[in-house]
Specification:
Elements (H helix, E strand, L loop, with lengths): L3 E10 L2 E11 L4 E5 L6 H8 L7 E6 L2 E2 L5 H6 L2 E4 L11 H6 L2 H5 L9 H14 L16 H14 L4 E5 L7 H16 L3 E6 L2 H7 L2 E6 L2 E7 L8
The structure holds adenosine-5'-diphosphate (2 copies).
The site of one adenosine-5'-diphosphate has 11 residues, from strand 2 and helix 1.
Keywords: ATP-binding, Nucleotide-binding, Sugar transport, Transport
GO molecular function, one term: ATP hydrolysis activity
Protein name: Simple sugar transport system ATP-binding protein
């Protein structure tokens, strides 16, 4: 069963049709790439899955069950975490604080309530190291890290707090070649850990190496839907 499935989903804002008849699947251990230019409907698609907007037509299924999220909190509760391009982290806060930021939303602190600062710093450092980022100092403001590393902290945080679906909104858009590579490697790590990743990007060169499924949006319509294994090359 797909973690997330859209079946003929549509979204209207008044008389503007932002999405129409969109069908897509997100599976565990796979990356679903959503490609498209500005205005194609990528943000609208994210907002529906993340509980910020509701679809006007069609069906959304979460683990096979027809679902409409009333709020972002509902989506988080269902294990759907979104890393937005700009809002991922608070620049002046130390790395470790950013790592635990928002955890009260997902886990109500719960088991984490008893963690002291030393433990939180250790966990942040270990989790980042595990995913391939070696920070000597998690006390430094996260604003001192590169853009790629900042995105990675936000992704590692979602993975650590048990997200099943990770939605990444243009995580490489503002990054150079090297930093994009760091984030792409991180996406592979999340995928290998069994998460279903939705990777929004306008850059096919970033989508192809990591993607398992590809959807191209144009003016709210899906104009291409490919699954990697199904792409055949004549020999
Ligand atoms: P993308 O993220 O691919 O740039 P969007 O989902 O932001 O595309 O936008 C798709 C279309 O829907 C655009 O024409 C945009 O102007 C319109 N749109 C998006 N959000 C709203 C809104 N809240 N109200 C009205 N129109 C919107
Ligand atoms: P993004 O860069 O993520 O695609 P935009 O800059 O297109 O986002 O949109 C920013 C916000 O404005 C979003 O909440 C979007 O839904 C809203 N929006 C976009 N287009 C319109 C529109 N034509 N009318 C009203 N709101 C819009």
């Amino acid at each position: 069963t797909a973690l997330v499935a859209l079946e003929g989903a549509g979204k209207r804002y008044g008389n503007i049709i932002a999405l129409r008849d969109v069908t897509m699947d997100v599976h565990a251990g796979q990356v679903t790439c959503v490609l498209g230019d500005n205005g194609a409907g990528k943000s609208t698609l994210i907002k529906i899955i993340a509980g910020l907007h509701q679809h006007s037509d069609g069906v959304m299924r979460i683990n096979g069950e027809e679902t409409v999220f009333d709020s972002p909190r509902d989506a988080l509760g269902a294990g759907i975490a979104t890393v937005y391009q700009d809002l991922a982290v608070v620049p002046l806060m130390p790395v470790w604080r950013n790592f635990f930021l928002g955890s009260e939303l997902t886990v109500g602190w719960g088991p984490f309530a008893r963690l002291d600062v030393t433990a939180m710093k250790r966990i942040a450092k270990e989790e980042l190291f595990e995913m391939g980022i070696d920070l000597r100092d998690v006390d430094q403001p996260i604003g001192t890290l590169s853009g790629g590393e900042r995105q990675c902290v936000a992704i590692a945080r979602a993975v650590y707090f048990g997200a099943k679906v990770l939605i990444l909104d243009e995580p490489t858009a503002a990054l150079g070649v090297k930093q994009s590579g760091v984030v792409l490697r991180y996406i592979m790590q999340a995928k290998n850990r069994g998460l279903g990743v939705v990777f929004i990007t306008h850059n096919p060169h970033h989508a192809f190496p990591v993607g398992d499924r590809f959807m191209v949006l144009k003016r709210g319509r899906s104009i291409g839907n490919h699954v990697k294994d199904e792409i055949s090359i004549d020999d």
